[in-house]
Amino acid sequence: MSSPNHFSQWIIYEDDCLLAINKPSGILSVPGKPPNPTPCVQDYFPSQHAGLLTIHRLDMDTSGILLLAKTKASHRFMSMAFQNRQTSKVYQAVCAGRLEQPAGTIQLPMRCDWANRPRQCIDFVQGRYAQTRWQVIAQKEAQFSVALFPITGRSHQLRLHMKMLGHPILGDTLYADQPAQQAVSRLLLHASELHFEHPANNQTVHLINTASFL
């Protein structure tokens, strides 16, 4: 269990309505279903932050910006903003292989793979619309860093879309082949930017997480 001082090091933005943290990899955004003992973000809240409300989620293995609400009103406002795609998110990832193009878009419909939960799958009949833009940051011999821009917000969207593109995210135990899984000790996917309209004053807030995830 983390101390309050440790939790304070996660904070990247705070005001009367909202708090944004840099969630570490390996921690759930919300409590797991019993008897899941995996720690979640709420387990690390000090007493003065005990009433924080979860607005959106990151996969347990994904690190980066997680936005929390301090009031029910701000929680309702921001939850609707995420639901209506009125927020803008940027992720960084490191993927296997080489990309010939510097940027592109992948659009493949997704649904839950019920027989292999929590995995998702591509389904052109029953799948829900899903779109991701990508832009290469740096190409190395057998891997590259990339900025990912999810237009939609499906579960595991970035992980599955990069897999379908032929370049799984390193450390992805659900979608990558064994060499890409074992190349690193964690999933190299990080929520690096979040842009939204503030619930109290309607001003645009630009959150940029400068913490390294490598």
Automatic annotation (TrEMBL):
Pfam short name (any one): PseudoU_synth_2
Pseudouridine synthase RsuA/RluA-like domain: residues covered: 18-162
Broad enzyme group: isomerase
Record's catalysed reaction(s): uridine(746) in 23S rRNA = pseudouridine(746) in 23S rRNA; uridine(32) in tRNA = pseudouridine(32) in tRNA
GO molecular function terms noted in the UniProt entry: 23S rRNA pseudouridine(746) synthase activity; RNA binding; tRNA pseudouridine(32) synthase activity
Entry keywords, A to Z: Isomerase, rRNA processing, tRNA processing
A single GO BP: tRNA processing
Function: Dual specificity enzyme that catalyzes the synthesis of pseudouridine from uracil-746 in 23S ribosomal RNA and from uracil-32 in the anticodon stem and loop of transfer RNAs.
Family: Belongs to the pseudouridine synthase RluA family.
Name the record gives this protein: Dual-specificity RNA pseudouridine synthase RluA
Organism, as annotated: Thiomicrospira aerophila AL3
